[in-house]
Amino acid sequence: MSPSTFEVRDARTTESDIRFIISTFDSSLSYLNSIGSLDQWGLIPFSERGDFAAGTRTEVEQSEENRLTGGSKENGLRMFIVEREYLEENTEEKPPYLRIASDGRRLLPVGFAYVRENWVPVYVKSQTHFPVPDTEGEGFLYLEVIVTDCRVGELRRGAGAALLSGIREYGRERGTKVFWVDSWAGNERRLVRYYEEQGFNVVGDWSHERANRTPWLGTLMRMEI
């Protein structure tokens, strides 16, 4: 059976989408630990970190408002989910976030991304030894986070690239010229190399201290849209 293609859509204010995002954040931690990237996000489930769950719900609502109005609330936050058609015949063990499209296809979410417009996180803005995005200059997009669902195995292969492609298309529609991301640079720069494979170029490296933990190693990257 040939694999299905990916489709990128906006996250919706449904319980299913919100639960998918939170649970995918949580499930990523054991995977990161298994590949030697424990220091990226640690082991405490995101759903147990303060008001993370409530904050995620609010962010999805803000993203939906920006989609509907074309506005820029919360720095133009938009949240995207990547799906692919689920072709397995076994219906007794169907994935929990499977949805039925209007044309009858069964679509499985396999990843998501948050992107903002003309926004830079404080920990990047504070760097002085390399050029950071100019929030007062020409419009740009900033990838805040991207996560694919390790629970679906091979079905997620290529999902990250599909999300990045969809975001670039969104950026072209918005008239933005540059796409930025900061990458965790630990574990022998494994994630940095992935972003380079997707077309990003390194701008500069830094590290910042974290309470009772090893410093967070970061790399700022950019690509032309």
TrEMBL record:
InterPro entries: Acyl_CoA_acyltransferase (IPR016181)
Record protein name field: N-acetyltransferase domain-containing protein
